[in-house]
Design brief:
three-stranded antiparallel β-sheet; globular; alpha/beta; about 325 residues
């Protein structure tokens, strides 16, 4: 499978390059041109989890990872469960907090780290990432202690929880942290601007572990299949999945799962008062406001990076 720069379709790369570069030219996101559905989803849902992950992920990464390499990545990534818990009749909650930093991003961050171990060839890599809270901790713990990989995390000073801050500012070693006077969107803008300096990118092997990196998203696709596999078979028709959204990466992964054939009828995407996407859907105007700090700080994103991927899936050959 090839990955296209959504801002420059002449830039076409394999999975390893997409993971290593993070962003394409002109700050473009990498994404598959077309996502082919899996032929027998029912059998896949009944398969053991590691076999299921292999079948889901292989079309995306198979050009660069052998089956044995991918099995090793899977083994070292999915070391904690995604548990589906009944709330009431026909309503379930997918618990994604069983990883080391209590965040759903532990899945994607660990997958990316394990893939880069396979692709680095001993070369120096610098991971520069912005966080509104949970990404920083997940990325820091996923990459902590990995040889030849340095991590720099930017976060908005005073705008994340004390626990989240401690989880990534206290590690040391190859994890560096910088508190920025501003919002998550300011941190994210600094990360994207860094990728415009091509000499810097080349000199330090610059990469990002935000959900702008496609590896984060395809790993998260797997737990949507896990969720449906735990739903009683007679309830698998007309599934509705509700996803709280900040940078819209988790919803992107869910829509990819749907394109692969998961029987999802529709999605409910929720934001807090940082409501750029709902306003865009109502008016057709993309007008991010200044980010407002809320109690749901991981959702405090006014310019969600992954929205172009969702638009592409809604409007293009990916469907």
């Amino acid at each position: 499978m090839k990955f296209y720069n959504l801002k420059d379709n002449t830039q076409v790369v394999d999975y390893a390059t997409a993971v290593r570069q993070g962003l394409g030219r002109n700050q473009g996101l990498f994404f598959p041109k077309k996502i082919d559905p899996i032929e027998d989803v029912d059998s896949l849902l009944d398969a053991p989890s590691e076999a299921r992950y292999l079948q889901i992920l292989k079309p995306f990464v198979g050009e660069n990872l052998s089956d044995e390499q991918l099995k090793d990545v899977i083994k070292n990534t999915f070391k904690f469960p995604a548990k589906l818990v009944a709330v009431e009749d026909n309503i379930y909650c997918l618990e994604l907090f069983h990883g080391p930093t209590l965040a759903f991003k532990d899945f994607g961050a660990n997958f990316m780290a394990n893939c880069l171990k396979q692709f680095s060839n001993g070369e120096k890599i610098t991971i520069l990432t912005a966080t509104s809270g949970d990404t920083g901790a997940a990325v820091a713990h996923a990459f902590y202690g990995i040889k030849n990989i340095q991590v720099v995390i930017l976060y908005p000073k005073g705008k994340i929880s004390a626990l989240q801050e401690k989880m990534f500012t206290t590690l040391g070693g190859n994890i560096k942290t910088l508190a920025i006077e501003g919002t998550f969107d300011d941190c994210q803008a600094l990360v994207k601007q860094s990728f415009d300096d091509r000499s810097l990118v080349k000199e330090i092997g610059l990469n990002s572990a935000n959900s702008i990196n496609i590896s984060r998203l395809i790993a998260q696709v797997c737990y949507y299949f896990d969720a449906v596999a735990q739903v009683p078979q007679e309830q698998r028709k007309k599934l509705v999945i509700s996803v709280p959204c900040g940078n819209f990466g988790n919803l992107t992964a869910a829509i990819i799962a749907q394109l692969l054939g998961l029987p999802i009828e529709r999605f409910v995407a929720t934001t807090n008062v940082n409501d750029t996407v709902p306003r865009f859907l109502q008016t057709g105007q993309w007008q991010p406001n200044k980010t407002i700090a809320t109690l749901s700080n991981a959702m405090d994103v006014s310019a969600p990076n992954n929205w172009p991927r969702i638009e592409y899936m809604m409007q293009s050959e990916a469907v």
